[in-house]
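Students often ask why inverse folding is considered easier than folding. One informal answer: many sequences map to the same fold, so there is more than one right answer. In these notes we will look at a single instance of the problem. The structure comes first.
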């Protein structure tokens, strides 16, 4: 880069129609440099405008003027004959007129001495000697001097055009990301993940020539896709082919493996049409070409090992130095194929507050009178970015009283958008694993792992493999002292699963715990054969058990009535006075 400063920037919410406008002299650069630059920008999903009209008139068209006005970054390719075109110079004047905050001019000196542009000497001086319109000439000179004094790129300092284009595109990406971080589908919630991104980059060993695959693992809504997207945006410039494939599990179900794989391979090859019908993909010419390319691949939301096989084969599809990143909720889905696995953690409290306030107050400061209720929302979300953003957006513009009401409602009815994402992991469990998850969510949080395994084994469950599955799917954690833990939002999801079994008749649910409904049910002898668990901890009113209270609860396998009739300090066994207890009860 040249040493002089670039055009000014400061925060602005303005969004333009085009990311980049390229101004160039067609006869010098259209069929080589500009064509390669344009293709590279398009592969990076940067919306780029170039004028393909080869039959230009004397005056610049209205459509071109509008395209200039609607662009964020203007790349000016100063070449040998640029100054001989009045059209190019009119474009340049218009660009200079549009320069303001949050827009950038990037001059590129392509096979031309920057001083010739800056001072209108050499071929530029010769061109200006031929221009007749003095008024325009003065404007053109001012525009040339002003843009040539900006920080730019000199082709003579690079070995070849590929290196120069990589540098220019990297500069553009950096400017766009800094300018509109919230525009990217990956960037929302980037607060607090810089350290995690750096740790993953370390695992990726970018400079190594090995082909490596990295897994990003964590519970639903924790930010795996956001982190993978940020890494992709940052590193994609270093690779010859790139593809970020979102929602792999869902897209495979919708479109099928063949169609999605063809789209994937097409993206890696820069948009070239690919149609492979044979199951023996390795033998095709497409794969042989990819084996010579250094690529970056992100497969988002992988739920099964076979899904990896669809897109990456046996690691043999890509060239040396390639990197594959897979995000997943299920560690077992990737563990046999990846070289490293990174677990994404919840955001810290201060980071969570930043994410939440960005949505709830649209970037404005947190009002003092909202601080207490805001902290209650943060406690509820417990560091999960999805919950922070969903709740922040929902509460935006609402009064403090409405916030209080919303929190009260959340205790009874969890947010649907949050639950929908979290429940995907639960729905992937088999019947026994679901039972174990629901038991932990309702009453076994805080138990030691060994104690829990003994209890589950007594129920006839395969405790070891069941707990391992829940751990691999990030549905539970084991703390450092071997205590079972579960994120509050996941526990709430478990409670809601049981609540949905029968909304209006709790006696028809499988599990009852710590509620006035449970006390009412026991006091009124309303038990049914659906009930498997009754769990009342300390602090609830004493219930009056009748001799036949449990007679109809033939599935009851867990009964805990702490400090209730016949149980607690000075009390006897809960079976005292009862006619019978279910055979399943242990």
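Output (designed amino acids):
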């Amino acid at each position: 880069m040249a040493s002089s400063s670039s055009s000014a920037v400061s925060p602005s919410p303005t969004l333009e129609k085009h990311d980049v406008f390229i101004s160039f002299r067609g006869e010098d650069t259209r069929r080589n440099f500009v064509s390669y630059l344009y293709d590279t920008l398009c592969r990076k999903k940067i919306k780029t405008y170039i004028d393909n009209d080869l039959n230009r008139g004397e005056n610049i068209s209205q459509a071109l003027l509008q395209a200039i006005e609607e662009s964020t970054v203007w790349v000016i390719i100063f070449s040998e004959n640029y100054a001989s075109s009045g059209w190019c110079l009119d474009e340049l004047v218009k660009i200079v007129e549009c320069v303001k905050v949050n827009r950038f001019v990037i001059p590129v000196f392509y096979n031309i001495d920057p001083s010739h542009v800056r001072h209108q000497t050499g071929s530029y001086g010769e061109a200006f000697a031929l221009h007749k319109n003095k008024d325009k000439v003065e404007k053109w000179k001012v525009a040339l001097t002003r843009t040539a004094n900006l920080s730019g790129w000199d082709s003579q300092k690079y070995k070849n055009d590929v290196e120069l284009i990589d540098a220019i595109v990297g500069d553009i990406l950096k400017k766009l990301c800094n300018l509109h971080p919230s525009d990217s589908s990956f960037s929302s919630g980037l607060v607090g993940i810089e350290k995690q991104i750096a740790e993953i980059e370390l695992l990726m060993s970018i400079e190594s020539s090995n082909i490596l695959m990295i897994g990003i693992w964590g519970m639903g809504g924790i930010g795996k896709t956001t982190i993978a997207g940020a890494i992709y945006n940052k590193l994609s410039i270093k690779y010859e082919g790139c593809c970020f494939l979102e929602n792999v599990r869902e897209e495979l179900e919708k479109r099928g493996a063949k169609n999605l794989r063809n789209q994937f391979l097409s993206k890696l090859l820069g948009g070239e049409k690919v149609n492979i019908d044979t199951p023996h993909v390795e033998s095709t010419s497409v794969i042989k070409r990819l084996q010579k390319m250094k690529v970056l691949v992100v497969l988002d939301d992988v739920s099964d090992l076979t899904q990896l096989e669809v897109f990456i084969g046996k690691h043999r599809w890509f060239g040396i130095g390639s990197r594959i990143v897979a995000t997943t909720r299920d560690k077992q889905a990737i563990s046999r194929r990846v070289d490293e696995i990174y677990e994404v953690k919840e955001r810290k409290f201060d980071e969570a507050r930043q994410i939440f306030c960005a949505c709830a107050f649209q970037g404005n400061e947190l009002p003092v009178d909202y601080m207490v209720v805001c902290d209650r929302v943060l406690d509820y979300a417990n560091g999960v970015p999805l919950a922070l953003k969903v709740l922040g957006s929902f509460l935006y513009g609402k009064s403090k009283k409405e916030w209080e009401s919303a929190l009260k409602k959340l205790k009874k009815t969890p947010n649907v958008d949050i639950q929908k994402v979290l429940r995907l992991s639960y729905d992937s469990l088999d019947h026994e694993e679901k039972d174990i998850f629901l038991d932990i969510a309702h009453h076994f949080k805080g138990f030691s792992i060994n104690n829990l395994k003994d209890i589950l084994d007594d129920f006839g469950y395969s405790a070891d493999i069941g707990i391992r599955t829940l751990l691999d799917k990030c549905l539970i954690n084991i703390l450092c002292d071997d205590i079972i833990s579960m994120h509050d939002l996941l526990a709430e999801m478990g409670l809601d699963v049981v609540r949905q079994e029968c909304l209006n008749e709790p006696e028809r649910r499988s599990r009852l715990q710590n509620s006035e409904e449970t006390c009412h049910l026991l006091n009124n002898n309303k038990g049914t054969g659906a009930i498997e668990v009754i769990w009342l901890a300390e602090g609830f009113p004493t219930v009056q058990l009748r001799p036949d209270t449990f007679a109809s609860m033939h599935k009851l396998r867990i009964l805990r009535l702490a400090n209730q009739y016949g149980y607690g300090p000075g009390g006897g066994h809960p079976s005292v006075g009862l006619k019978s207890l279910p055979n399943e009860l242990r």
